[in-house]
């Protein structure tokens, strides 16, 4: 657009259209928000509770500015409006550019500098977000993600490499007599979500990371669920007109039940208006040229309007100040004529709205739509709601989250005009977001499943740790109890020992030694007495049936001149071995080995054998010399030098 001091017919035309001569207007045109003035730019609330309370900032990326809204939750659980601000941005700058990033960083730093703990939720400005309601068989909660994924994959063109998917369970329903679960599935381009993350990562130095990314439909759902919109009961609709696209959302009991994107947006209206204004301007120029030719005076050439001029024109028109008629150089513009210029685009928009309403009535059967909210900056500057209401037969209303009856506690004044209040609706919807209620493209169902698995594992570990700790405590108490009992027992024994005097002395030891020697002598005498019986018993035990002893000669005792008994060393066995003739010597050898293994006999000597006939059979007669161990007390040992001891 040209400079203000260059007065052209186009400028005159736009100035006349902007002139506030509408008799039906009740409020003056809103002044543009100026951050430097401090009046309308931002209003601050002196916090009445500590900053440790949860504070949330909602961000809406507009065409000419960033809308920022800060809310908090009081001790009574009430939502409080802490601050709101509009940060101007250059419409020509691209998101992600250094200028755009610097503007966002500066605005957030000033807006959040008084907070220590804060959550930031941003709207995803994307026309490629798709939402669809599907129905899946009823499955356990653990299998819900897979069931939704494969059902949606079958019904829609979804590429998990390009899009991020999430869903919200709407409730149980019945389809063809079968129980089903109704699910709202929504997808967004991964690249656009990453770009938004990168945008905030570039300003991460301010210490406020991005908490959530959502869309306008869910921002409006937040407003409905928190009761920010007065008289919002029953089934409601919302029409949002964006730049290249629009969206129709239908809510039932505060839940989003149907949403549909429309490829008709503000740019479609601008294109139609540019074409109409240029045609009107061309006719005006031709009429002025004819008058100039008749009068003989020259006329100023008027250039065609471009898209940027018309866009600025739309944003500068006030809803309250839109004239019923405006006169330009050689042309009279009326409100009806402006609507006629954009009539084709409006008709396409209305047809899409009607189809969405019909689909809702036929498929969902959740009651008639009582009211349609309209949102978007064009609605604030052009009276499109009345036209749409007449076409679809449903009352329309400009969205106003700061209106009377809202539960939002405000210690600061809300925006003055309904236009300004409506412009903060989406940012406020993001500012009342909660992770448990608001869909978040940064935290999808897969992240929730991972977190649930981690939480489940943590619970198992915690329960196991508690059980082990309880066992340790019980064991510790039991050991402590046992220690007390043992300590008491030891104390009693020590006390008893303290009362007992030692009875062991030299005489006692001498007596015990004499008694031990006496016992030893007695045992020795018993050994001598029963030695013969022991020899006979051992031979009876060791002699097998095929060995018959014929004679046993043993010298058990022998007395010397000094009347001391000397134990015998000689034992002679005579007998016969019967059996097979060839095995008789083996039978005798086996018998001698058994005698050698006895602890009573010493190693037998070389046997004297003779093969004889006994009772008609061939037997082996043998004579074996042996020795008997000395009785207890008579054993003698031989030292290494050969002396007895």
Low-confidence stretches: 1-51, 292-303, 318-333, 635-645
- The level 1 CATH classification of the domain at 1-15 and 230-398 is Alpha Beta
Report the CATH superfamily of the domain at 1-15 and 230-398. Answer: ATPase, nucleotide binding domain
Helix content class: 40-55%
Overview of the structural elements:
- This protein is α+β, with helices and mostly antiparallel strands and 645 residues long.
- Among the domains are: 1-15 and 230-398, Nucleotidyltransferase, domain 5 (2-Layer Sandwich); 539-626, Alpha-Beta Plaits (2-Layer Sandwich).
- Helix content is 40%, strand content 23%.
- It is built from 17 helices and 23 strands.
- The protein has helices at residues 9-18, 98-112, 144-155, 190-201, 216-225, 266-295, 307-316, 335-341, 343-364, 377-381, 385-392, 418-423, 425-431, 445-499, 506-529, 531-542, 584-596, and strands at residues 42-44, 55-61, 65-73, 79-88, 119-123, 130-137, 163-175, 178-189, 210-214, 235-241, 246-252, 255-262, 325-328, 331-334, 371-375, 396-398, 409-410, 547-554, 558-559, 565-566, 571-577, 608-614, 617-626.
- The strands form 6 sheets. Strands 1, 2, 3, 4, 5, 9 and 17 form a 7-stranded mixed sheet that branches. A 5-stranded mixed sheet has the order 12-11-10-15-16, sandwiched between helices. The chain has a 4-stranded antiparallel sheet with strand order 18-21-23-22.
- A hairpin with a 5-residue loop joins β3 and β4.
- α5 (216-225) packs across α13.
- The protein is elongated and about 160 Å long.
- The N and C termini lie far apart (137 Å).
- 27% of the residues are buried.
